[in-house]
Every structure is written in structure tokens, then in C-alpha cells.
């Protein structure tokens, strides 16, 4: 992992706000005044419970929010020094093609069911790269932990296991040789053994490419061993940020403390599972209103 705090920011997010439409023609502020930095080669964790705004933040950084006039984004997202808020679709396409690889939590949703996996990996390989594209596809599949690359390349997504589909998404993401990989809950719905394999693959691949990583997760155990710095989100806001080890060992915010207590209760046999109380949620909501 990269611990050089002086390295240049590759992603700079300032005062990011994202408004999403609701079913009753109103809107909600899913992300509220978020500031976030990812330096070259750095691994950053974005953690929080479901609905905290972390996935929306990740999709905003990748320019993958729904294209609708009712989806509003304000603030600043600079990628490699280029301002992207308000940029046209063509500019976002170029940034994703050149810089950003995305790994989603549900591979069956994001893999094309009518295309063989190898063709989907090949689509991500820059046209400027010379050489045998079949060999390149097999190489990226192997790099993503799929040893039987020819068979996987010839398969359709439904013919693979959940863990293999997730690693296929990793292969697609890295085939463009991105400067940044955003992994949004990459181990959701996988059993513990497969989770460990997928995370090991992601860890090794990011190290080999020397790329930056934004790892989005609700699981503190996942981000603990794979990130340099950690952002904790609650109710659309960043409530705590710092070096991962520092945040986990000496949390300052009540919500971070509650998240850690929830995890630690699982390691103590016979201890009742801890949950965040309604009273704490009310206190947090009041603190957010006053901020």
C-alpha cells in the first residue's frame, strides 16, 4: 500500500452534493457536502451502512449516476486535474476509458448476458494497444485470478459461479490499465471463502498495476487490511476521516464507535449483538442538523 502522503491527488472531491428524485416528485439529498481525496497509488476506504451515500458518491466520481434532469450534482470532482462536474458525456466517456475502472457488487447485473466474457474484457482493452488481443484477454483473466482463462473467456456470465463472475468484472476493470479502480461492495452475496479469494485477487491486482483504489464497503473488516486511509459516511456525510489504523483504533465520532462496536460484538461468544439505538440515531440526526 502507498503511504506517501505527499503524492499528488488523483481525485479531488470538494463540497459534493447529489440530489436524487423520489417517487412522489420530490428529491432527497443523498450526498451532502462531501470532501474526499485519493492520491496517486493510494488505497482509500469509504465505509458506512446501507443508505449512507457511499455508493452514490462512488458513482458520482465515476460519472455513472442516472442521466436525468432530476439528478442534480454540484460541487467539484477533479480527476487528474480536470473538472468533471457539468462536463459533457463525451468527456466522462474519455475519463472512464482512460483512467477509471469500476467493479460493481452485482456482476450478473453489469455483465452483458448475451456476450461471452472474453469479448467483454476485449472491449475494455485500449484500441491503441498492439498485439494479440486474445492473449491479452487471457492474460487479464489470469491476472484477475481465473486460471482457466480460455474456458472462462468462451463462457457466458450465467455459466460461471458468483466468485468467477466477480473476478471477471475485475478483469474488465483492469483491462484498460486504469489509474483508479472503484470497487463498490465487491464481495456482496459471496460466501466467506470466495470473499477472501476475491479480495486477495483485488489486493494483488491493484499492487501489480500500482493503481489507486476506492474500496466501498459496509464491512470494516474488509477495508481494514486493504486501505491506507478511511472515510466514514453517515446520512450522506463524511463524519470521520484519517489513516485507516488510526480511525479503527481510536475512533472519534460516535457513529464510527458504534460501527466498530457492532463488529466487535461478533467476535465475543455469548455476547448479544450490538445495534445502533434509536436514541443514538436521533442524537446523530440532531448533530447533522446543527453542523
Can you describe what's shown?
With 291 residues, the chain is an alpha/beta fold. The protein has two domains: 164 residues, 3-Layer(aba) Sandwich (Rossmann fold), CATH 3.40.50; 65 residues, no CATH class. 39% of the residues lie in helices and 24% in strands. It is built from twelve helices and ten strands. The strands form two sheets. Strands 6-7-8-3-9-10 form a six-stranded mixed beta sheet. The protein has a four-stranded antiparallel beta sheet with strand order 2-1-4-5, with helices on one face. The longest helix is centred in the last third of the chain and has 18 residues. The radius of gyration is 19 Å and the shape is globular. The model has no long low-confidence stretch (mean pLDDT 88).
Amino acid at each position: 500500500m502507498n503511504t506517501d502522503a505527499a503524492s499528488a491527488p488523483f481525485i479531488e472531491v470538494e463540497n459534493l452534493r447529489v440530489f436524487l428524485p423520489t417517487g412522489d416528485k420530490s428529491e432527497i439529498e443523498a450526498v451532502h457536502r462531501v470532501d474526499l481525496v485519493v492520491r496517486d497509488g493510494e488505497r482509500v476506504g469509504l465505509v458506512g451502512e446501507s443508505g449512507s451515500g457511499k455508493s452514490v458518491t462512488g458513482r458520482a466520481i465515476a460519472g455513472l449516476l442516472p442521466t436525468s434532469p432530476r439528478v442534480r450534482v454540484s460541487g467539484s470532482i477533479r480527476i487528474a486535474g480536470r473538472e468533471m462536474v457539468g462536463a459533457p458525456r463525451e468527456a466522462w466517456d474519455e475519463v472512464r476509458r482512460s483512467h477509471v475502472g469500476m467493479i460493481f457488487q452485482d456482476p450478473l447485473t453489469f455483465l452483458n448476458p448475451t456476450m461471452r466474457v472474453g469479448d467483454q474484457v476485449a472491449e475494455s482493452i485500449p484500441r491503441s494497444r498492439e498485439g494479440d488481443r486474445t492473449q491479452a484477454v487471457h492474460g487479464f483473466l489470469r491476472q484477475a485470478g481465473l486460471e482457466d482463462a480460455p474456458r472462462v473467456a468462451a463462457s457466458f456470465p450465467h455459466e460461471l459461479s458468483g466468485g468467477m463472475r466477480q473476478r471477471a468484472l475485475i478483469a474488465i476493470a483492469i483491462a484498460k490499465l486504469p489509474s483508479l479502480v472503484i470497487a463498490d461492495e465487491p464481495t456482496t452475496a459471496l460466501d466467506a471463502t470466495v470473499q477472501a479469494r476475491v479480495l486477495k485477487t483485488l489486493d494483488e491486482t491493484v499492487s501489480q498495476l500500482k493503481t489507486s483504489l476506492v474500496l466501498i464497503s459496509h464491512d470494516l473488516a474488509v477495508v481494514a487490511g486493504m486501505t491506507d486511509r478511511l472515510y466514514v459516511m453517515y446520512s450522506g456525510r463524511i463524519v470521520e476521516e484519517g489513516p485507516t489504523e488510526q480511525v479503527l483504533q481510536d475512533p472519534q465520532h460516535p457513529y464510527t464507535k458504534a460501527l466498530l462496536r457492532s463488529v466487535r460484538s461478533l467476535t465475543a461468544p455469548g455476547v448479544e449483538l450490538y445495534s445502533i439505538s434509536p436514541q443514538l440515531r436521533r442524537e446523530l440526526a440532531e448533530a447533522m442538523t446543527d453542523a
